Amino acid sequence: MRAYQLTAWQQPPELRDVPEPEPGPGEVLLKVAGAGACHSDLHLMEFPPGQLPFDPPFTLGHENTGHIAALGAGVTGFREGDAVAVYGPWGCGRCRQCRLGRENYCDRAREIGVMGGGLGRDGGMAEYQLVPSARLLVPLPGGIAPVEAAPLGDAALTPYHAIKRSLHLLEPGSSAVVIGVGGLGHMAVQILRALTATRIIAVDTAEEKLTLAKEVGADHVVLAGDDAVAQVDSITVGRGAEVVLDIVGSDETLASAAQMTRMQGELTVIGIAMGTLPFDFFALPYECSLATTYWGTAVELMEVLELAAAGKIHAHVERFPLDQVAEVYDRLRAGHIEGRAVVTPNG
Q1: Residue 215's domain is classified under what CATH number?
Q2: What is the pTM of this model?
Q3: What is the CATH number of the domain that holds 15?
Q4: Cβ–Cβ under 8 Å, residues 63 and 138
Q5: Ramachandran bin of 217, using left for φ above 0, alpha for ψ from -120 to 50, beta for the remaining angles
Q6: How far, in Å, CA of 347 to CA of 34, rounded?
Q7: Based on the domain organization, do 271 and 203 belong to the same domain?
Q8: Where does the pLDDT of residue 110 fall: very low under 50, low under 70, confident under 90, or very high at 90 and above?
Q9: DSSP letter (8 states) at residue 282
Q10: Do 236 and 209 share a structural domain?
Q11: Are 61 and 36 in contact (CB under 8 A)?
């Protein structure tokens, strides 16, 4: 079968012919329907050797859906042909965090040396993906096509988790800022609209992405630049936003986000552009919390899928065949993807 693999750090991935995997005891073989192309994959390609607890080669793609092609010995609760989403972060399955469905925060993550399919283990940019345990599969609710559901495993789950932890601040009359309206950002706007009555302000450098933000539920859109902070200040009547989600995470966006947040607000950094925010006593408003988050829980993935099944959220998807996967990442790097790019390895 064909697979798009990272073969060495800081080298372009390659579309290669590799053996089709066979499921062993407890494992599940997935015929991939959709694999989302994530901006974090671009960062992954540039990591220097030794910085992560795993090494190439491995197949990219950590945002996957498909149909079960084969079950390993001992697997129960699923049948061949079932449509499923793959829960992306793979922990040990035994620690307290994992038993609570929080494999994204597995206590033994460094020890086991992988972060998930597409992150140390083979992911979904291939015709088939081997999933090491049925616990990592979530059945797709009726009414959701697997290709359309692929982005929900990260592009929706990641902002959903970040937003849920701040729901206590997002009362009617509050404001939330989303910086970066790409794959995750356009889902964050919809999740805020579905879960809260907050005023939603979307910020981006691209007019077309702000147009998409408006279409999916943003109350206000702001073009990133020198006067973006002043515009948010005006929209919030000088108070700032209760919650700011920085889905980029660069030096520039962090500096703006810190000025857009109000006292006792929360600034959550989701993007991994590896920017820094110089800190001193006055770097943030009084009692403003600064946090990073990573992905979400297995239960939250179920909740995200139910929101989609109910028509509350919908990923804007551009589809590409597997032989165009290199072009997909080039377009993603250039900012020319609207919503989420999904690779369809089996057509």
Answers
A1: 3.40.50.720
A2: 0.96
A3: 3.90.180.10
A4: no
A5: left
A6: 9
A7: yes
A8: confident
A9: T
A10: yes
A11: yes
Q: Is 336 left (phi over 0), alpha (psi -120 to 50) or beta?
A: alpha
Q: Are residues 120 and 161 in the same domain?
A: no
Determine the structural domain holding residue 224 and report its residue range: 157-292
| DSSP result, 200-227 | EEEEES-HHHHHHHHHTT-SEEEE-STT
Question: Tell me: the pLDDT tens digits for 53-87?
Answer: 899 999 999 999 999 999 999 999 999 999 999 99
Residue 95 and residue 57 share a domain = yes
The angle that helices 228-235 and 251-260 make with each other, rounded to 10 degrees, is: 30
Instruction: Clarify whether residues 199 and 62 are in a common domain.
Output: no
In sequence order, which ranges of 30-82 are alpha helices (DSSP H)? 39-46
Say how many domains are in the chain: 2
Alpha-carbon dihedral angle through residues 251, 207, 343, 183, given to the nearest 10 degrees: 50
Q: Are residues 218 and 269 in the same domain?
A: yes
Angle at 150 between CA 270 and CA 347, to 5 degrees: 140
Please determine, for residue 287, whether its predicted confidence score (pLDDT) is greater than 90.
yes
Kindly state the percentage of the chain with pLDDT values over 90.
96
